[in-house]
């Protein structure tokens, strides 16, 4: 693994994560595709990347679970060596609901999957990247959402609030590790065509709302992946604690 940069994409088997994993592989990164349960999607993506001449592994791990996160990072240590980039892409969405009908169980599921997971992955990445620990530095890109700004009333305030937490994590952590060779930035996608909207109970949500988007269309996973890649790459070397909205102007 001499000189090859290493990227971990959490939730990299499908949607925005899959487009990101593919893009990093095309740019020569050794890519770890993490997934939770859809091994078929992750394996098929890995085959595609390998067929294009890329280098990747797939690792099943529930990143909301601390023991799984430790296993995920030590697998990367063993198979690839030092991590250069972490993309915190995982999130879950529950069925559209007003807050008045939300159970504590639902709220906690959203927070642990969308927030705790990112904190745990950042912690393990920093241990390895920090120049204060003898690491070579690195870049973390968090995937938030335009929902952090809109609040998603009548649909999923819990999800929107979890993304607000990701924005705050980005800001605070970027300052905490700025002099340790680590940049921490964030991409906030808008309405993007992925399976996530089916989890929210409305598979055609992007098409229903696309006329409200100034660019008058939904976004594609690759359009988000390009922003993530830029923030992880040396092309954005003077940017940290910053946010790129990929929302079609919304
Ligand atoms: P998606 O198609 O639903 O894919 C989610 C991915 O996350 C899947 O690969 C899934 O694994 C994985 N995952 C979920 N929980 C996990 C866990 N605990 N541990 C490990 N993996 C887990 O989602 P997406 O639409 O691509 O969204 C990606 C990111 O963009 C999320 O942060 C989302 O909030 C954000 N975003 C999306 C939109 C949009 O319109 N799509 C808009 C704004 C922000 P399995 O494949 O194993 O199930």
From TrEMBL:
Could you say which residues form the signal peptide?
none
* Family annotation (InterPro entries): NAD(P)-bd_dom_sf, SDR_fam
**Keywords noted in UniProt:** Oxidoreductase
Q: Sorted alphabetically, which Pfam families does this protein's record hold?
A: adh_short_C2
Q: Tell me if Disulfide bond is a UniProt keyword of this record.
A: no
Q: Which family does it belong to?
A: Belongs to the short-chain dehydrogenases/reductases (SDR) family.
Name the UniProt record assigns to this protein: SDR family oxidoreductase
């Amino acid at each position: 693994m001499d000189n090859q940069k290493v990227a971990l994409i959490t939730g990299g088997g499908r949607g925005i994560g899959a487009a990101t994993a593919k893009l990093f592989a095309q740019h020569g990164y050794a890519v770890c595709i993490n997934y939770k349960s859809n091994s078929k999607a992750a394996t098929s993506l890995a085959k595609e990347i390998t067929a294009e001449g890329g280098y990747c592994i797939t690792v099943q791990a529930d990143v909301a679970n601390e023991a799984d996160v430790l296993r995920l990072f030590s697998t990367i240590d063993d198979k690839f060596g030092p991590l250069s980039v972490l993309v915190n892409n995982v999130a879950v969405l529950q069925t559209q609901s007003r807050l008045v009908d939300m159970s504590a169980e639902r709220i906690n599921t959203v927070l642990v999957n969308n927030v705790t997971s990112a904190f745990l992955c950042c912690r393990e990445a920093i241990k390895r990247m920090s120049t204060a620990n003898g690491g070579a530095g690195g870049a973390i890109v968090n995937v938030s959402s335009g929902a952090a700004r809109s609040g998603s009333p009548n649909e999923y305030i819990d999800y929107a609030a979890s993304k607000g937490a990701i924005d705050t994590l980005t800001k605070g952590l970027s300052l905490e590790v700025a002099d340790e060779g680590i940049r921490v930035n964030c991409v906030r996608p808008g309405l993007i065509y992925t399976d996530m909207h089916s989890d929210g109970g409305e598979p055609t949500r992007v098409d229903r709302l696309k006329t409200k988007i100034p660019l008058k269309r939904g976004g594609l996973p690759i359009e988000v992946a390009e922003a993530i890649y830029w923030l992880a790459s040396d092309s954005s070397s003077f940017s940290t604690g910053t946010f790129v909205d990929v929302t079609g102007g919304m």
